[in-house]
Amino acid sequence: xxxxxxxxxxxxxxxxxxxxxxxxxxxxxxxxxxxxxxxxxxxxxxxxxxxxxxxxxxxxxxxxxxxxxxxxxxxxxxxxxxxxxxxxxxxxxxxxxxxxxxxxxxxxxxxxxxxxxxxxxxxxxxxxxxxxxxxxxxxxxxxxxxxxxxxxxxxxxxxxxxxxxxxxxxxxxxxxxxxxxxxxxxxxxxxxxxxxxxxxxxxxxxxxxxxxxxxxxxxxxxxxxxxxxxxxxxxxxxxxxxxxxxxxxxxxxxxxxxxxxxxxxxxxxxxxxxxxxxxxxxxxxxxxxxxxxxxxxxxxxxxxxxxxxxxxxxxxxxxxxxxxxxxxxxxxxxxxxxxxxxxxxxxxxxxxxxxxxxxxxxxxxxxxxxxxxxxxxxxxxxxxxxxxxxxxxxxxxxxxxxxxxxxxxxxxxxxxxxxxxxxxxxxxxxxxxxxxxxxxxxxxxxxxxxxxxxxxxxxxxxxxxxxxxxxxxxxxxxxxxxxxxxxxxxxxxxxxxxxxxxxxxxxxxxxxxxxxxxxxxxxxxxxxxxxxxxxxxxxxxxxxxxxxxxxxxxxxxxxxxxxxxxxxxxxxxxxxxxxxxxxxxxxxxxxxxxxxxxxxxxxxxxxxxxxxxxxxxxxxxxxxxxxxxxxxxxxxxxxxxxxxxxxxxxxxxxxxxxxxxxxxxxxxxxxxxxxxxxxxxxxxxxxxxxxxxxxxxxxxxxxxxxxxxxxxxxxxxxxxxxxxxxxxxxxxxxxxxxxxxxxxxxx
Length: 747
Description:
The chain is 35% helix and 20% strand. By secondary structure, the protein is α/β, with parallel strands linked by helices. The strands form 6 sheets. The protein has an 8-stranded parallel barrel with strand order 1-2-3-13-14-15-16-17, surrounded by 6 helices. The protein has a 7-stranded mixed beta sheet with strand order 22-19-18-24-25-28-23, sandwiched between helices. The longest helix is centred in the middle third of the chain and has 20 residues, at 417-436. The chain starts with a helix and ends in a 15-residue tail after the last strand.
């Protein structure tokens, strides 16, 4: 009212701050971090552009938000069908080994077809082996026949062929092995029966009353009417207290499928706590899968209660909303989803969400609610989306995959990457403070609200930098944490278009990917040779495939060979600081369409035990016999001396006159002939560094504006016009371009 206006007039600071806030609001449109949207999303002009424009499909098949596809169904098992799925954007192929769903021979044939499809499309794809655990699939003999559960009905569970005629008797698959009923169940346990790979309102709760060696007698506690569209049911033993983490069927699948196929990911259903997940990890290691990644399925209430323990053991987390629907109320599912995604973000674990497009099992288009749900999952920070029954038994698997990717691409275009980066930086500061027994900078007012910060002594800030450096020497993980944080921070500050990570195990890539940087992350896995003179093996491809679940990461396998200057695809490196690995990385990045001339790339690597973050500017690819001059890169130790890129440039008289007018006699045809003769004479002297094409890198010219030149991969492209001269891959006058300062951040 009037009193508020007088208060503002009497307080000029309040008026100024209010004006600034209004200006800021008009510029941004809304505060960053609201609903996961980036700045400026509330503007009508921006919103209209977003609605009218369509997010461009990237050149490569790796979108930022990954999609895991369950294969092996009628429309996802042949070579042609799998090739279409790979080209559409499938990055991880999931094999569902729930007992009773498919036979082992069918899965092996599908795997062989997937290998053939990968060779045809040359697309990288990881293999995910999903063990059934305590979940069994039962098929309906006649789907058109009425199939209902009534309250008080007696239901028996028996061993046999997994086919049922009615709801009175459910047979569990015993073709591979039988489940020990006496050791698994006890009176009072609850067995859930719901549609296969789905749950929710159609979940029958069966209470165990009596147990014998061959059968279990249960009493139904609710009424359920199963529609004719449901062809298979899932019998879930997650409510059994004594249920083992995996049964005899799972052991056979691990030995006959997972180990020979060298799968990249493995999971088991109905895991109750982190201890059971640790047993699965140990069993996989002992069975011959030393490098397999463990996926934790959050599909029951026990797993939700012990979520911190599961996150400590798991490499990837899958939020199985289908199975959780049997034990979690529908109105509370959103809170569970937000909580799991937040916990995974806090510890840096990739999180994948399931149960997305149920309507697309029978229809070629999703509902508006499903499309909005998928977009909100992406905006909440999920790393991937999992398609289950939509591609296993659906009628439109390829259309469903393309639809999910298009929705994720649109949501990713408005995702608030900056807010995710800020939250991760706060977590990084907390970790550093815990490791160094000090208080993070700028978080003193938050100590009372955060229990983690409350444990830190406020007065323990003694020589914090020295303590941190000492901690880096003894804690390798913390050292990688700081390296990843510095790489992402540098990319944000200079607006880099690419982050390149060199990694052997993929741990550094995971630490970089948890920040969700706005630019793509090219992860080059370096092959490692193990063995002796008789037997040896090359490792590195598994680590590259396992990075396909990280959001925004493009994994690639380093070939180990360095391009030469005579190759058509080889960049020309003129300055010290751009190494052979930099050349290979930028070559691969341009092949994948991740970088264009003039873009900046941040390199995150470990050189001779020293963690380094550096910035390299990419200037394009060089073609042989191109008429290119680079006055900024010297041919000799004298500053300002131009360098010839090829001998064919001697015929460019106009360019020679321009260089001679600018630099004097140095750079004329006669002088280049003299330098060429000097180089030929120096080839026979091992102590001298060759000036043209030798191993020694030429020193960059000194600039008055910067003390160091930016490591640069430079090239020129030939032109049809004889009057135009190319400098640094661009056409224009013979004027050397100023370079930016190099950034080296060692730890």
